[in-house]
C-alpha cells in the first residue's frame, strides 16, 4: 500500500537522520574538550564555565521554547534536579576545567569517560541492580586501565589532575543514578534544561566567591570563539539535539554515540593541542574504553546522559 510504504520511508529517514546527528554530536562534545583547553590558556576555569554554562543554558531554553517542548517540572522534583545540577553540571564542569588547566586534556577525557562503570557501581549500591558477569568484567577492566594509566604518574608526585578527572566521572555517575534512585518523572529535555540552569547558578556563585567576577575581557578572538563553541554547541545545542533525537534510536545505537566522544576528544587533543600519549595512556584508554563498551552496549544497558 502506498500510504504504508511512505510511512516506512519516513521512519527510516527519521532513524537515519538521528544516527547522523548522534555522529555529529559525538564530534560536538569531543571537540568541546579541545575548545575548553584553548580557552583555558587565557581565562580561568571559573570564567570559562560561567560563560559556557550561561550561554548553553540560554541556548537550550530558547531552543526548547521555540520548538514547543514542555519545561514543566512535577511538584517536589525541583530539589532533586538541583542536586543533580550541582553534581552533573557545576561539579563536573569545574573539576574538568581545573583538570585540563594542570594536566593533559587527552588524559582527562580518558579518565572522565570511565563514568559508565562507576554508574554501574552506584546502581548496585543504591538501586540494587545486579552485577552480572559483563558488568563485573567491565569493572575489572576499568580498574586495570586506571591503574596502568595512573601508576607511573605517582613517580613524579601526587597527580591532582588525575583525581580531578576521576571526580568528574564520579559526580556525573552519581547524578545519573541519583535521578533514578529518586524516581523522578520530569521529561528528559526539561530535566537537562533545569539541571543546566541550577548548575549555572552554582557556578556563578563560585565565580564571584573565588574569582571576584567573571574575567572575560579583553580576550583574543581565538579564546572568544572557543568560549562560544563550548556554550553554543558543546552545552546548549548538543543537549537539545540529543534529547530531541534519543527517543528515535535504540539504547545501543545511542550508546555508540556516547562511546565516540572520548575517541574524538583524545584524537583531536593530539592533533590540535600537540599532546602525546604514553604507552600507559594508550593501554589505559583501550581498557577503559572496552569497559565502557561492555556496560553501554549490553542489551539492557543504561542510556547515557549527554556530556560536553
List the helices and strands and how they pair.
Elements: H1 2-39, H2 45-66, H3 78-102, H4 105-112, H5 115-126, H6 133-150, H7 160-181, H8 188-210, H9 221-245, H10 251-273, H11 279-296
Helix pairs in contact: 1-9, 1-10, 2-3, 2-8, 2-9, 3-7, 3-8, 4-7, 4-10, 5-6, 5-7, 5-11, 6-11, 8-9, 10-11
Q: How is this structure best described in words?
A:
The protein contains eleven helices and no strands. The protein has one domain. The model has no long low-confidence stretch (mean pLDDT 88). It has helices spanning 2-39, 45-66, 78-102, 105-112, 115-126, 133-150, 160-181, 188-210, 221-245, 251-273, 279-296. It is an all-alpha fold and 308 residues long. Helix content is 76%, strand content 0%.
How many angstroms does the end-to-end distance come to? 44 Å
Element order: H for helix, E for strand: HHHHHHHHHHH
Tally of extended strands?
Answer: 0
Radius of gyration from CA coordinates: 19 Å
Task: From the structure above, extract its key features.
308 residues; mainly alpha; 0% strand; globular
Amino acid at each position: 500500500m502506498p500510504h504504508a510504504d511512505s510511512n516506512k520511508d519516513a521512519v527510516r529517514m527519521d532513524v537515519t537522520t538521528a544516527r547522523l546527528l548522534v555522529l555529529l554530536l559525538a564530534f560536538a562534545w569531543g571537540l568541546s574538550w579541545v575548545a575548553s583547553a584553548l580557552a583555558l590558556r587565557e581565562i580561568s576555569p571559573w570564567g570559562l564555565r560561567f560563560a559556557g554554562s550561561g550561554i548553553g543554558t540560554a541556548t537550550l531554553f530558547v531552543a526548547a521554547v521555540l520548538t514547543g517542548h514542555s519545561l514543566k517540572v512535577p511538584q517536589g522534583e525541583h530539589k532533586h534536579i538541583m542536586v543533580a545540577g550541582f553534581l552533573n553540571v557545576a561539579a563536573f564542569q569545574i573539576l574538568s576545567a581545573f583538570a585540563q588547566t594542570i594536566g593533559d586534556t587527552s588524559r582527562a577525557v580518558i579518565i572522565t569517560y570511565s563514568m559508565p562503570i562507576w554508574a554501574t557501581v552506584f546502581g548496585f549500591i543504591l538501586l540494587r541492580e545486579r552485577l552480572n558477569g559483563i558488568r563485573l568484567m567491565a569493572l575489572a577492566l576499568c580498574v586495570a586501565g586506571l591503574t596502568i594509566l595512573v601508576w607511573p604518574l605517582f613517580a613524579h608526585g601526587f597527580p591532582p589532575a588525575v583525581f580531578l578527572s576521576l571526580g568528574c566521572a564520579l559526580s556525573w555517575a552519581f547524578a545519573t543514578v541519583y535521578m533514578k534512585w529518586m524516581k523522578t518523572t520530569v521529561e528528559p529535555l526539561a530535566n537537562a534544561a533545569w539541571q543546566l540552569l541550577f548548575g549555572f547558578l552554582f557556578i556563578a556563585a563560585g565565580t564571584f566567591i573565588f574569582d571576584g567576577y567573571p574575567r572575560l575581557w579583553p580576550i583574543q578572538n581565538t579564546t572568544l570563539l572557543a568560549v562560544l563553541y563550548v556554550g553554543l554547541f558543546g552545552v546548549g545545542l548538543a543537549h537539545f539535539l540529543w534529547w530531541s533525537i534519543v527517543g528515535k534510536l535504540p539504547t545501543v545505537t545511542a550508546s555508540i554515540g556516547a562511546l565516540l566522544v572520548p575517541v574524538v576528544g583524545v584524537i583531536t587533543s593530539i592533533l590540535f593541542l600537540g599532546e602525546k600519549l604514553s604507552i600507559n595512556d594508550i593501554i589505559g584508554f583501550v581498557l577503559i574504553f572496552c569497559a565502557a563498551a561492555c556496560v553501554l552496549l549490553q542489551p539492557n544497558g543504561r542510556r547515557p546522559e549527554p556530556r560536553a
